[in-house]
Recover the amino acids of this structure.
């Protein structure tokens, strides 16, 4: 079993390697792939050193799976080349997510859709993943009509440049390299990604469109406001969910508790609710602050937290790889 990681030296690529090791995915040979400036560097994986190679070398080595985390432009250029060589591509970028020919997968929700005909598989946006993990069991039980999402997203979602900006600003250096157009320390920025013609950001539109595709239901209405905050460790979301049927909060709680990959933390009397610090380096999606919205019928409020580099990116991609292996879909 050969597995390539394209973008192995980046923030998410590093996390992919960490998750592969933690989950004991059976790998006979790791193929770390990165840009020219990283060629020849050594990656230590399970106490063994592997040299970083270029994409042509990686393709020639014929891995069974290539997990991409190198940005959309790289994925658009290279993923088809890997796929044409018979290599299964699991792509973390937005390049293929809304393409009608490629599946957008959260294994707990729609892993069963995968077949041995899938050579490019899209990994959803981090904020979408944690939201649909909550929506799926609720939709199956009560039917979801509409979702109003407000996100509070970690700087780690913007990569190492953003982490450096936050750390430099906290150290008093306001003139270092910037990932954002405004200061992020002691601030929040109500813009994630570029603005679209409709005045929503690309991140907000991703959440809307990807949710409908993953849940295979275009009738669910979604609106979102995505905000960057000075936190490292995880994304948080406030979700207001209008359901088709009325509900009992205890049934909602038990429905979420029984869904694989969700941890409910919801004891307000003891000040227990999910926070990014608690989700950091964990794979579950954490849900709390469960309560009825009394302003309209059949509507639920909840608070959702997840480590965006784990379930929001690396872990979900590795879980897709595990599914392909376990189901014998590599031949």
């Amino acid at each position: 079993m050969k597995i390539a990681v394209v973008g192995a030296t980046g923030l998410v690529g590093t996390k992919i390697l960490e998750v592969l090791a933690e989950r004991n995915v059976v790998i006979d040979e790791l193929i770390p792939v990165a840009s020219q400036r990283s060629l020849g560097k050594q990656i230590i994986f399970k106490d063994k050193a592997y040299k970083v190679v270029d994409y042509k070398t990686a393709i020639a080595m014929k891995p069974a799976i290539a997990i991409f985390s190198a940005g959309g432009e790289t994925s658009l250029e290279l993923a088809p080349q890997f796929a044409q060589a018979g290599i299964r591509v699991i792509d973390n970028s937005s390049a293929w997510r809304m393409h009608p020919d490629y599946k957008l997968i959260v294994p707990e929700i729609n892993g069963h859709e995968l077949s041995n005909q899938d050579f490019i598989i899209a990994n959803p946006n981090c904020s979408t993943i944690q939201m649909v993990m909550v929506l799926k069991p609720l939709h199956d039980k009560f039917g979801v009509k509409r979702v109003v999402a407000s996100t509070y997203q970690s700087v780690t979602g913007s990569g190492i440049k953003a982490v450096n900006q936050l750390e430099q600003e906290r150290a008093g250096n306001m003139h270092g390299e910037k990932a954002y157009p405004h200061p992020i320390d002691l601030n929040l920025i109500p813009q994630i990604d570029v603005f679209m013609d409709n005045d929503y950001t690309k991140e907000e539109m991703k959440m809307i469109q990807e949710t409908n595709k993953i849940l295979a239901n275009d009738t669910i209405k979604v609106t979102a406001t995505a905000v960057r905050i000075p936190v490292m460790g995880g994304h948080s979301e406030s979700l207001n969910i209008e359901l088709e049927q009325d509900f009992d909060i205890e049934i909602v709680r038990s429905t979420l508790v029984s869904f694989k990959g969700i941890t409910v933390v919801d004891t307000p009397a003891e000040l227990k609710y999910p926070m990014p610090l608690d989700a950091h380096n964990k794979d579950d999606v954490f849900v709390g602050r469960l309560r009825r919205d009394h302003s309209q019928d059949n509507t639920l409020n909840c608070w959702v937290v997840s480590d965006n580099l784990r379930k929001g990116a690396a872990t979900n991609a590795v879980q897709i790889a595990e599914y392909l292996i376990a189901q014998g879909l590599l031949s």
About this structure: The chain has a mean pLDDT of 97. The chain has ten helices and 14 strands. The chain has two domains: 2-124+313-326, 127-308.
